[in-house]
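Handout, tutorial session.
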Amino acid sequence: MLTFWRHGYETTTIADLTTAMRVTAPSLYTAFGDKKQLFLEAMRLYAGDQEAIGRAIDDARTAHAAVRDMLTSAAIAFTGQATPKGCLLASATATGSAASADVQRAVADIRQGIQTRIAARIDRDIADGLMPSQTPTPALSGLAIAVIQGMSVLARDGATRTSLIAIAAAAMATWPRHDGERAPRRAAVRKRSARAP
């Protein structure tokens, strides 16, 4: 996983992988079939349990909180001391030939799956009155993914964890709200006014 993360899918050689894994080429082929299958296994290891990620989005207090936590976690993960900078999903297949189109598609499917769960959570918040009814769900869920991908590029360019967390906060400051936190207080004021003599 770290070798693909560091060098990218296509530029990583079998020799790179056997050296990193301390196995012979025949052993690698016996265990995984080929480089593509090994990469897909590494990608799944990196991406984690997608159902668990989906549940975390669903169980968050709001869509805002879910995306905020995702961006903050990404900022931390992209600047770890023991791993390459940035995101494996963003960097390993950022470029590639037609021969790796299916690998690029597999990575894109993971991103799309996360975006779909974010979109569903946004729609739920709209239905619950926590976000404006005119909120552009596809654009907003796409923005969340775009910010994560951009943070990955910046991390590879040398951006610090502090700066990435600040970028995440700036992105979340643009998140549309229905003043859900202030609305109950206004309602309470109206109730008190109605009771006043």
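The second record follows below. Compare its token runs with those of the first.
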Amino acid sequence: MKTLRDIRPRLTVADFSACLPFTRLLFAIAVVAALSALGAPNGLAERHDRPVPILMYHVISAAPAGVAYPELFVRPNDFAGQMDWLAAHGYHAVTLRQVYDYWLKGSPLPQHAIVISFDDGYLSQATVAMPVLRKLHWPGDLNLKVNAVQKYNLPSWRVHALIAAGWEIDAHTITHPDLTTVDDARLWQEVHGSRVDLRRMFHVPVAFFCYPSGRYDAHVVDAVRRAGYLAATTTHYGLARPSAPYELNRVRINASDGVPGLAHKLEALAP
């Protein structure tokens, strides 16, 4: 009987040379497959750090005579025209959570994603803004002050209607104070307490925060982190970027902007 040594395969130099082209082919296929799995050229993993514009609105109504901050009022026709302009130029509204998941996990996001945020909680956001966005099948982001949820302002049933329409609810404190001037107990109540209240009232995650009047400092940011928020928006002008999740820029839309002003702001900020 032959030994194992006698029956083992024997590979000559000629045989080895003949196998080289096939071996090289297998190696090339493996490299291509690996690069395809990475989803980017030259073996670099795809980056998910594309900046996103977050529009900032307040009241969707004509400003009453003598009102304190008339620039916070955007006329309904202007708002509708601005949304039509966005749609015509390839924009698609998403929630801040969708943006965050894109940055963190690489979840899908439209090429020209934009967040349309509304501060405080005004009746016109439900009666005027929501129908306009609903026609486009777009959500809004409501930075809701807890004390705004009341019968003669923005009743809870209207907030539920916004949620049913796909809107995201984010916290904007309870009473809208300057958080840089309050003591620690009040700071925690406004930051953490507003999240607790909104979650209890509307059974939604409330994962993001908005600084009242854009006022914050390192101490306020620390409270926002400890309260469990994933990110926070400011009133600083510019595009929101994942490198500063607790200091996300926004693009404020004023009464005087109209459609041309909105277009100019976005075109100037285009990355």
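Points raised in discussion: The chain has a mean pLDDT of 88.
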